[in-house]
Structures are given as structure tokens and as C-alpha cells.
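User: Study the fold:
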Amino acid sequence: MNKGDNAWQLTAATLVGLQSVPGLVILYGSIVKKKWAVNSAFMALYAFAAVLVCWVGWGYHMSFGKKMLPFLGRPDISLDQKFLLDRAYVGFLPSATLVYFQFVFAAITLILVAGALLGRMNFHAWMLFVPLWLTFSYTFTAYSLWYPDGWLAKRGIIDYAGGYVIHLSSGVAGFTAAYWVGPRTNKDRERFPPNNILLMLAGAGLLWMGWSGFNGGGPFAASTDASLAILNTHVCTATSLLTWLLLDIVFFGKPSVIGATQGMITGLVCITPAAGVVQGWAAILMGILSGSIPWYSMMVLHKKIWFLKQVDDTMAVFHTHAVAGSLGGILAGFFANPKLNRIFYMVDDWQHYIGLAYGLQNGRTAAGLKQMGVQLLGIVFVVVLNVLVTSAICLLIRLVVPLRLTDEELQTGDDAIHGEEAYALWGDGEKYESKHNSLHGVEEFPQVVSKEVEMA
């Protein structure tokens, strides 16, 4: 065992946990309409607790345990003292540390899924959805991509800290679940102002700073690669935020704080699959792309593609996580440095882990193309798995309880569902009034797009 590695890994895990509780709890509770503040925050808090119980009960071993199938481990309990105190399968750590570290990743994935469902999902349906999706979706992707015996891991897929396992999965699953649950009320879709933008920024800040543990914990060691991953993470994120901000100013004339937050998130998501295996200049380029391509998909394509307009994705997780996560995975396959890959994966393998850019430079074009092919295969696997499994889970839950709240509950919000209100002393009237609605209303994107954007 290594005390320094163990101390860092426990710290990194706690930083990731803080991204969820209180980070996303605060962000969700603040970015929604006042009447949905309690429900939105509580969906995140419940998921965090429920995932932990399922994780130590069976989820960890299904994701990182003895092989049962090429894409799944054998279910088992992770509470035995001998197992927890023995060295983990990776790093110089006790298994207890790894169980905790991997738990916070599983938890935040479910909380990100919740972002697509805010403002209308039946809480009892959500209580069933969390353990089912963790068991039949998350464990499959985690084992396939991250565990050494997983079929995609054996093919050399690069997913440094969860661009596929966490962000692409949550983006696709959230969008799929939103389709089955159905939309918010027309009134909420037309007008859904944040109840507290300053608190929203506090939650976003916890999310950003917590990402030091998210990507810095990837090597399972207090290593030079962890340091590189953390710096690349923040450089890419800052670049992405500034890129999104400039696009908002150029095309809409106003610097949107909600838009900048979306740019921050897409930067964090995009760098995640590549954080410790790309150089700093590549992180800058990835930030420019993550601040522009998801911006275009959200602000332009969303209004042009009929199917996207039919699905009520409250927090736009399809754009901020599915699009940005896929983009990051592809760019990892292009920019991944062979030397950095060998440091991270601890293998001297010239057939895998070589970005296409370096393959072209070093005369190993076939290996670079092969890497890109594996990255694309990973995207297809995660998308297909989550569409099918999430749909099956929603249809199953629908047989037991309604997926969507009743019309009366949708009109009232928190008080009808929980008997509690976030701002009870304020009375029933909305206090947020503005002549200029944000261009980045949580789901409802601007109805009238400037001529410049239409031309784009």
C-alpha cells in the first residue's frame, strides 16, 4: 500500500462526491422554476443515497469484480472486511478506497440522468429507476470499458475518467427517459426561469472545482499524470466557457451567465476521456471545439431537427453530455499521446493507445485509424445499450407506477409532491420578472433566432 496514493484517492473521491452533494443538489434546486426547487434537489439527493446502498450490495462487483460475461462482473456484496482491507485490483490502495471512489462516479451518473427529467417525473418512479438503471446499464458500461477483462478495455479504448461511462451514458439515458416520461406542462416549457442564478453559480463552481478529483483520480495514484490531467481539465474548461460566451455575444448580443455555465460543463465533459493522455495545446483545441460544437447543436440544430424538439430534455443533457462526451471520445482518439498513454495504462503497446495525429506523424497511420475505430465502436455500444435498457426500464416501471406526475401535481409542484416549499415565506407569486429572458432558458431555447444564426 502507498499512504500518499491512498490519501489522494480518498480526497479525489470526496471532491467528486461534493460535485453531487451539495454541487448538483444546489445547481438543480436553483436553476429550475421556484415551484420545482425542492423536487429537483431531492431527486439528486435520493440518487446519491440509493446508489451507495446498491453499490456495496451488488453494483461494485458487477462493474469491477470477477468475470461473469465479457461485459459484466459477478454480483457480490462489497462489505466483507477481508476484501475491503486487501489491496485493490489496481493501484497501491485498499479495496475500500476503490469501492468509495467508484461509487461517487456511479452516483453522479444517475444525478446527471435526472437533469433531463426535472419538473415532471413521478418521484416514486424515480425511486425505482435509480437502482434498476444502475444495475442494468451503468455496470455494463463500467465493466466493458474500465475493467481489464471488459471487451472494449481489451480492444484498447481510451476513456480516461468517464467520457463514455458517465457522460455519454447519462446524456443518452436522460434523453431516452425524457422521451418516455413525457414533457413538462406547456406553461413550464414556455417559461422556466431559474429561481436563483447566484446559487446556481455556487453549484456550478462546486462542479468545476470538484472535477480536480474527477479527472485527477483517474491514475489511482498521486502521480505526475494526475497533475497533468488536472491542469488539462481546467485549461480546457476555461477555454470552452470563453468560446461559448463569445458565440453568445456575437450571435445574440448578450453575455449569458447560464450560457457560460453550459460552456463550462461541455468543457469539463469533453476533456474527461482524454485528460491525462493529451498535451496542453490539445486541451486548448478541445476547449474551443467543446465550446462551439455543442453550442451549435443546442442553439441551432435543436430548433431544426424535429425529433429533438419533441423530447423535453430539461437541462439539455443530450447536448452538454452526450454530444460533448462523444466529441471528447473522438478527440481522445485523435490527440492521445503514445508516451502519455503508456504512463497511464502502464503497458508498452504500440498497437493500441496511439492517437491518429501521432499515427500520421510517426508513420503508424493504421494504428491511429484503429484507435479511432475503437473510439467510435465505444460510442455505438454505449448509445445502443442505453437506448434499449433505459426504454425497457421505463416501460417496466410504467406497469407499476406512472412515470409522470398528475396534471394537478404539475401545476402545484413541490407542495403537492413533498408537502414542502423551498421559498414558502415568499408566497405563491413568482418574483422573477425580466423583460429579457435568458437565451439559455434551461430547456426552452430562443424561439426567435437572429438572422446570423439562421444563416449559420
Notes: The first strand starts at residue 67 and ends at 69. The chain has 20 helices and two strands. Residues 3-414 form a domain with the Ammonium transporter fold fold (CATH 1.10.3430.10).
